[in-house]
Amino acid sequence: MQPVFAQDLVTRSNISRALVIAAHPDDIDFGAAATVSALTAAGVDVSYCLVTSGDAGGFELDHSREAMVARREQEQRDAAGVVGVSEVRYLKYLDGYVEPSHDLISELVAVMRQVQPDVVITQHPQRNWDRLQASHPDHIAVGEATVRAVYPAVENPFAYPSLEHLPAFRIGQLWMMGAPADLVNLRVDVTEHVERKLDALHKHNSQHPDPQAMDDRVRSAVEANHPDAERAAEVFHLVAVNDETTFAGF
């Protein structure tokens, strides 16, 4: 499929608010920061929700778990600011131990009902055998929990009794990062936002012992996603949850 511009997606699907959910700080920046930058530039209000604070990450060994949590949370806030995002939430699950439990699903439902996004962007719940690093177990668990929250829980007012004070609503679309190649059906042209993506990634300096190598690899990846060698794209598996193609939950 041909890449599309974020502004066209915003206009076509009437997107005013988006919520991005990921397992660890820097996951969003690797998977979708250029798209987020393009969305915020188009006037979309974007919020982040990180399920863990990345307490098991980092190549430096001379730190406590508490120090790494504080550092990585701040790195993500700084990276979010680069691409126009000011709201970053942390659910504080333990890095490496995430499961698609009802506790997590209900917390995600609560966040969705509070933010009321038109689009939810998250990680793919299906393992990508072509690039296993995209399929960290926490990524898969967060993707599965998010999908279950998006449908049917967030739109069922009786799904979680403790959340009945938050109004149920319907989400329009789900975009999933790190999808297996055969499921990719959305390419977002991010040519004008690649440098911001790299700037955001550089905020995660606890994670990158070789920033130049990271830059080269990320730049090559986004350029490979676009059929025009002079341009760049980020890719997703888009699922229509509630739009003109769906009816009564089917």
From TrEMBL:
SUPFAM superfamilies per the UniProt record, alphabetical: LmbE-like
Instruction: Cite the Gene3D superfamilies for this sequence.
Output: LmbE-like (3.40.50.10320)
Does the entry feature the keyword Zinc-finger, yes or no?
no
- Write out the entry's keywords from A to Z: Zinc
Q: Which InterPro entries match?
A: GlcNAc_PI_deacetylase-related, LmbE-like_dom_sf
Q: Does the keyword Protease apply?
A: no
Q: Which residues form a coiled coil?
A: none
Q: Check the record and name the PANTHER family matching this protein.
A: LMBE FAMILY PROTEIN, N-ACETYLGLUCOSAMINYL-PHOSPHATIDYLINOSITOL DE-N-ACETYLASE-RELATED
Q: What is this protein called?
A: PIG-L family deacetylase
**What species is given as this protein's source?**
Yaniella flava
